[in-house]
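quick one, 66 residues, struct below
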Amino acid sequence: MNANDDQATQLTWVKSSYSAGDGGQCVEIADVVTAVLIRDSKRPDAAILSVPTAQWTAFVRMAARV
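---
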C-alpha cells in the first residue's frame, strides 16, 4: 500500500502510547484485516510498513514481557 492511496488516508491511525508527547519519535498503526500498517506520524505521506497480524501479535507479546 502506498501512503498516498485513498485507502491509506481513510484508515484510522492510532499513535503509539510510547511516542513522545512533544511530537518527536511518533509511530502510528492502523489495523486492517490481514495486517497491521505502521507509519511515521511526522511523515504520514511517506512509506507504510505492512506486518502480518500474527507476527505483529507475537512482537507485542514479546515486547510486553520486557
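The mean pLDDT is 81.
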